[in-house]
Design goal:
Blueprint (H helix, E strand, L loop, with lengths): L1 E4 L2 E3 L5 E7 L8 E6 L6 E6 L5 E3 L7 E6 L4 E6 L8 E9 L2 E4 L3 E5 L2
Parallel strand pairs: 2-11
Antiparallel strand pairs: 1-3, 3-8, 4-5, 4-9, 5-6, 7-8, 9-10, 9-11
Length: 112
């Protein structure tokens, strides 16, 4: 089970922090965030391994920071200097047992 929180409405240049939790006790491999806008494919934002190695898409690098707490099986995405083009539904995923599990998504809207 994967649950996201923290979306909302923010003005351009503002910040939001997304959180994602999973069931404790699982041996989770990679976790990360994707986003999707209407009519487009879901795209990777950032991901983090169990060893805390990170990977960012170019548009996220320098503005977004992904972090992870292995004890709590959670990840966060700190998003700064948000732009209108960051508006999307953000999805968290977690990989364990050979499969990817997805949350229901959280809406992020960047608008003045």
């Amino acid at each position: 089970q994967v649950v996201e929180s923290g979306g909302g409405l923010v003005q351009p240049g503002g910040s939001l922090r997304l959180s994602c939790s999973t069931s404790r006790g699982l041996v989770i491999n990679d976790m990360g965030w994707y986003r999707q806008t209407p009519g487009n494919q879901r795209e990777l934002v950032a991901e983090i391994s169990r060893r805390l190695n990170t990977n960012y898409r170019d548009f996220a690098r320098g503005r977004f920071t992904i972090s992870r707490d292995n004890d709590k099986s959670t990840i966060d995405l700190q998003m700064n200097n948000l732009k209108p083009e960051d508006t999307a539904v953000y999805y968290c995923y977690a990989n364990w047992g050979g499969a990817d599990y997805w949350g229901q998504g959280t809406q992020v809207t960047v608008s003045s």
